[in-house]
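#structure-requests
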Amino acid sequence: MLTDFEKALGFKLEAFNYLYVLCDYETLLKKNISLDQFVQLCKEKDVKVLQYRDKVLSNEQQQQNLIFLKSQLNIPIIINDKIELIEFADGLHLGQEDLVKIHKDKKLAVKLVRLKIKDKLLGLSTHNEIEILEANELAIDMIGLGAYKNTSTKDVSAILGSKISYLAKISKHPVCAIGGVQINDVISNIRFNVVGSGFFNE
């Protein structure tokens, strides 16, 4: 029996370290990479999941970008934070603080999110054992777990390093390692390597 995440991917999650890429629009602008070029890179590197983040464009322009990405790539497109754009994506990713803003009771918060996104994919950021155990009780499809290593793009206080594999084992949801992760990193118990600016370095 396939999970909703596996149905969206179109395959059963049996291997590890599949590629999940962050499409951060600000990074594309800084590196002078068009959305077209980004799509080509995704196809070349066999990307399995894409998360779209955008703190630059208007919601209307973001909507157009999501429509374009979905038309070009046959993979799940996850929107970061912006539940109002869920209609144009296959799923939503939220941070801990985003969830608590919706309701301080995380189970209730997820129920409220589910009312809006229905059975689309839902991911949640986690950083430690307590957050993973809480996530195990939530109706979500995957967790982000990090930071794995130091990253130039974010100020990270807690680096998990090799501890990430032990923590991933606790999760009943597929784990997506984030923070300083490279495409070719082999990390035990990690289903997805979430790669940000490192996507352009290889």
